[in-house]
Each structure stands twice: as structure tokens, then as C-alpha cells.
């Protein structure tokens, strides 16, 4: 295993701005903001985080939830983080329903016989041996299929041809992903034998995007697979199928094989920069260690893990300890249903009131352009002070409606203050959940800007003593 490169001595020197406690609170605050700026400056040429992603995606590769590969990634991460000098490095175990594709093909049969490029959706049921054949019924929108008469769907393969809108914020994903999650269960309820969707992505390459379906049973508990076979078509193949349907009925042979298990091991990897006087108070920086199996999980979410590890290591190299503990959480099994986030919230339920701030990097590695918060009304001035440091790195002020990220959403709903350093997602969904999610898609300067931003706000949160839950001052 190639060791992770440590920050050069020059970067550490650039960060050594910390002094003894200043004489006044104002002086102390100014010193903290000054050190945060020095950390951010060091982050712009730091290589620890980028090396972490390169090594993870090269030495481990894809890391499907519940698989032996995810286990190898956990073991690798524990060894790397321990070697890097983090404190309290360990794994917190849990189990997940396991699903793995074994083969996947689709083919138009009849006079216009031809292959279609697909990928099975996570949780897809298998087809019978040799595949199944059925006529296609196309719906432009998920809502159209939900409103259709059962007789128009029964015995057919449903095709949801809904497009995803490209946006900087990635907001189009929330709308488009609904068809992926809901189609199999809703189509099965109407008697369909399978479900095809236009890939949830913004590219127009012949590479389909995988992703999970809703596989919860009537009791709300996730099962290894959903009720019927389900797959995503590449965008050009979605177009091709739509054109064929304009010319008349289309029959497709769909052949999907899977392996499943009711329970497989997973876990969250924890590492800390131990705090000082208030070490029981926690600033949490999260990412998810698992990935889908088509690419190597570089932008989703190896990059996020490299960003938070690189930022935490910068702070760890300062002389002395931060006042509060910075906890890095590499969540497991995010892709199949936020299992790691839910497990962490359960396992740490008695200390969530000690989590003073949380953030998660899980939207690629492009430049952060906005800083959103979810603070108490009385803490909004703290947001302004943090953003004042980040502004010099191209980060604009956001609103106070941050969600924090997928795995820490449960923390936000429990009242933990969160921030969302919003990355530019313009091309993120060109590669998301595809074979092209690989290390070469990470632009180093943009990645390092992320490290700078995370190091700056995490240090301020850990050192300032600010109460981000602070309510508005009562009116006199």
C-alpha cells in the first residue's frame, strides 16, 4: 500500500499562526479567523486529500455496499487514517440487505431486432432464466404512469422516458430520481412485469446510470430487492426506444441476474482530531465510503472523503489541539438507502446534543460557490463571520436553509446545526453512477479549494466556542 503523502513542512509553517489566548474576546476571535485563513491558504496546495482519493480508487476501486470490496475499503481506510496520525480510529459495524448484479442485457426482438444498452438498478429483481419478453408501454412522466389504468400496464414492460434538467445546484436530480425509486413498486402494483427508465443523468452518452430503487416492504423495512426487474437505459437508447415506439409496437427481451442476501456486514469508519478543554463537543465532517459498482467511486464519493480527511489533517498539524473534537465519519452503505447515516444517529443518540456542527461532502469535487447554514437565529452573525473568511476563495453567502447532506440529514432533523458548502454541480450528473466515475474526473485545483473551505470553517467551529444553536435574542 502506498502511504498517503503528508503536507509539506511549508504548509505546516503557514498554519502556525496560533498563539496563546488573546487578552480580549475580540482579539481571540480575530486570531481564530486569521488562523482559519492560513489553513485555507495551505489547503490550496495541499496534497493529502487528493492522494487519499487516488489511493482509494486505485487500490480498492468500486465499493458496493455490503460487499467484500466495501470491507476492504474499511480496512484500508483504518490503516491509512491510523498511519496519518488521527486519534480514535475505528469501525462501527451494522448490517445491510445485500444486492449484486451478475448480468444485464436488453434487446428489441422482431423486425427491428437490436441491443439496448442498460444497467440494472440497485435492488432489481432478477428475470426468469433466459430473460422475459413483453411489449413496451411508454410514459413521458412518472406521473403519467401513476395515473394510467391498470389494464394499460398489466403484463407489459413500463418505460418512463422522463428527462433530467441540468442545473448548477443539482436540483434537477431530486425531481428526476423519483422515477428511479418509484417505478418498480408502482408498476408492479399495476401488473407490469418490469420497469425501464431513461437514466437519471444529464449526459447524452451511451453509458447508463445505475442507482437504487425503493425496496421497502409493507413494514417499511428495506429488502434485498424490489418486486420486479428494473433497469436504466442510456440516454441514446432511450431515444432509440422512443423512436421505435413511434413506428409501432415494440417487444423487448430483458435479462437480469442478481445475487442477494438478507444481511451483509457494513460499517462507518471513524477518525478524530482530538479536542482540548471541550473535547466532548464534536464538529463532524462526513462523506460516504461506499460506491456503486460501475466506476471507481471517485466523484461519488471518494472525493468527499478526500476533502474531509485533507481538511481535518491540516487542522491536526497545527500546534496544540483544537478546543473541540473534529470527528471525520466515512459513512458506509449510503448508496443503497443511507444506512450508515441512520446507524450513526442510533449509535450516538446520547451525544447528539454535543454535536455542535456537522457537514458532509457528497456532490463531487467541483468548486464550492456558496456557503449555506442551518443555525439558530441568534447564530447568524457567526455564519457571516465564517463566510467573510471564505469569500476570498470565491464562496458566496447562502441562506439559512441548509440540509447538510444525505447521511447527516438525520442529524439536521434532530436539531444538529449543519452547513452545506455547495459545489458547482453543472456536470456532476454527467458521470454520477456511471462507469465514467473515475479519478481523472477530479480537477485538482477545484478539489483543493474544497479542502481549503472545509479546513477553514471546521477550525472556526472547533476553536471559537460559538453556539450554533443559539436562538434569537428575546425582544425587549
Automatic annotation (TrEMBL):
Its Gene Ontology cellular component terms are: extracellular region; lysosome
**Domain of life here?**
Bacteria
Signal sequence span is 1-22
User: Which InterPro entries does this UniProt record tie to the protein?
Assistant: CPQ, Peptidase_M28
Keywords in alphabetical order: Carboxypeptidase, Endoplasmic reticulum, Glycoprotein, Golgi apparatus, Hydrolase, Lysosome, Metal-binding, Metalloprotease, Protease, Secreted, Signal, Zinc, Zymogen
- Alphabetized PROSITE patterns for the sequence: PROKAR_LIPOPROTEIN (PS51257)
Annotated GO molecular function terms are: carboxypeptidase activity; metal ion binding; metallodipeptidase activity
UniProt domain Peptidase M28: residue ranges: 268-457
Per UniProt, subcellular location reads as: Endoplasmic reticulum; Golgi apparatus; Lysosome; Secreted
**Entry keyword Metal-binding:** yes
Q: Which GO biological process categories is it annotated with? A: proteolysis
Listed under subunit, the entry gives: Homodimer. The monomeric form is inactive while the homodimer is active.
Q: Which PANTHER family match?
A: CARBOXYPEPTIDASE Q, PROTEASE FAMILY M28 PLASMA GLUTAMATE CARBOXYPEPTIDASE-RELATED
Name the record gives this protein: Carboxypeptidase Q
Amino acid at each position: 500500500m502506498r502511504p498517503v503523502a503528508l503536507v509539506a513542512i511549508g504548509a505546516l509553517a503557514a498554519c502556525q499562526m496560533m498563539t496563546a489566548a488573546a487578552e480580549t474576546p475580540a482579539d481571540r476571535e480575530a486570531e481564530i479567523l486569521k488562523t482559519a485563513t492560513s489553513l485555507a491558504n495551505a489547503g490550496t496546495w495541499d496534497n493529502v486529500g487528493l492522494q487519499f482519493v487516488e489511493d482509494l480508487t486505485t487500490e480498492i476501486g468500486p465499493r458496493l455496499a455490503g460487499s467484500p470490496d466495501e470491507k476492504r475499503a474499511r480496512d484500508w481506510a483504518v490503516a491509512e487514517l491510523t498511519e496519518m496520525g488521527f486519534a480514535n480510529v475505528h469501525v462501527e459495524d451494522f448490517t445491510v440487505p445485500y444486492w449484486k448484479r451478475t448480468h444485464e442485457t436488453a434487446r428489441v426482438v422482431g423486425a427491428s431486432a437490436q441491443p439496448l444498452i442498460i444497467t440494472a438498478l440497485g435492488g432489481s429483481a432478477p428475470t426468469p432464466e433466459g430473460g422475459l419478453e413483453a411489449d413496451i408501454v411508454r410514459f413521458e412522466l412518472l406521473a403519467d404512469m401513476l395515473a394510467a389504468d391498470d389494464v394499460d400496464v398489466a403484463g407489459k414492460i413500463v418505460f418512463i422516458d422522463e428527462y433530467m434538467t441540468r442545473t448548477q445546484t443539482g436540483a434537477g436530480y431530486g425531481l428526476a430520481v423519483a422515477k428511479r425509486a418509484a417505478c418498480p413498486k408502482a408498476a408492479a402494483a399495476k401488473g407490469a412485469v418490469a420497469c425501464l427508465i431513461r437514466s437519471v443523468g444529464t449526459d447524452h452518452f451511451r453509458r447508463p446510470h445505475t442507482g437504487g430503487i425503493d425496496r421497502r416492504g409493507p413494514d417499511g423495512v428495506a429488502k434485498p430487492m424490489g418486486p420486479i426487474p428494473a433497469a436504466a437505459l442510456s440516454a441514446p437508447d432511450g431515444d432509440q426506444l422512443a423512436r421505435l415506439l413511434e413506428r409501432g409496437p415494440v417487444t423487448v427481451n430483458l435479462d437480469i441476474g442478481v445475487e442477494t442476501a438478507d444481511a451483509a456486514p457494513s460499517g462507518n469508519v471513524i477518525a478524530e482530531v482530538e479536542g482540548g478543554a471541550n473535547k466532548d463537543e464534536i464538529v463532524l465532517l462526513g462523506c460516504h465510503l461506499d460506491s456503486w459498482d460501475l466506476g471507481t467511486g471517485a466523484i461519488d464519493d471518494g472525493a468527499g472523503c478526500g476533502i474531509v480527511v485533507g481538511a481535518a489533517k491540516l487542522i491536526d498539524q497545527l500546534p496544540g489541539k483544537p478546543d473541540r473534537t473534529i470527528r471525520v465519519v466515512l459513512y458506509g452503505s449510503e448508496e443503497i438507502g443511507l444506512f450508515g447515516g441512520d446507524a450513526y444517529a442510533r449509535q450516538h443518540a446520547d451525544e447528539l446534543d454535543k454535536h455542535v456542527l456537522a457537514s458532509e461532502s457528497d456532490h463531487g469535487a467541483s468548486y464550492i460557490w456558496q456557503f449555506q447554514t442551518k443555525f439558530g437565529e441568534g447564530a447568524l452573525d457567526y455564519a457571516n463571520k465564517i463566510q467573510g473568511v471564505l469569500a476570498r476563495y470565491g464562496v458566496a453567502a447562502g441562506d439559512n436553509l441548509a440540509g447538510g447532506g444525505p447521511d447527516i440529514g438525520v442529524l439536521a432533523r434532530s436539531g444538529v446545526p449543519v452547513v452545506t458548502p455547495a459545489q458547482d454541480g453543472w456536470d456532476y450528473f454527467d458521470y454520477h453512477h456511471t462507469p465514467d466515475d473515475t479519478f481523472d474526473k477530479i480537477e485538482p485545483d477545484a478539489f483543493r479549494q474544497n479542502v481549503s473551505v472545509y479546513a477553514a470553517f471546521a477550525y472556526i467551529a472547533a476553536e471559537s466556542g460559538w453556539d450554533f444553536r443559539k436562538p434569537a435574542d428575546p425582544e425587549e
